[in-house]
Amino acid sequence: MWLDRFAGLFLIALARLLTGAYANWLGCKPEAQQRLYFANHSSHLDFLLLWAMLPPSIRYRTRPVAGADYWGASPLRRYLIHRVFRGVLVERKPKPGVSPLAPLQAALDAGDSLIFFPEGTRSLDGEMQAFKGGLYHLARDNPQVELVPVRMENLNRVMPKGNLLPVPLVCVLSFGTPLALGAEEAKADFLVRAREAVLAMMPKH
Is the pTM above the cut of 0.85? Predict the structure, then answer.
């Protein structure tokens, strides 16, 4: 256990050193409320930095959602995702009849918070893609969970696809006002509104 915790602290310190990352809590505060943090996705560093921005008391009850194909590909990745990050792995191509959201729902039922990327895969050009339906289904089935939009800036430039080493740049993570699914809100409308909540926190140049 102490080794797992030490590895997590080391990775947090390294990520902060390389990126100079800091958090802007614009629409909420870091509180011990069960939450689903949903963010734009452009780098394998994304969930590590978001996880690192949370206070320790919240961080260790917050689990990143990640692709089983990538994080199950080597013993080191499996150790990190299971023992250090306590990640929730999802199958990109689940077996027939098996919901890919089942592991996420189990984590929420256990009282954990989640870090979730509604695009489903990394953006290659930094432009945020349309949100897939998973966020809507989780919101519908878990009205007690706060949905917090997070805008992550510069991550695609720090760790562009194909690079083995990060490029030192300052990264900003902006936490917005929690959303709630409307009583009669259609899935498509909700997903557009959630995406716009993340886009709205883009810096004005």
Answer: yes
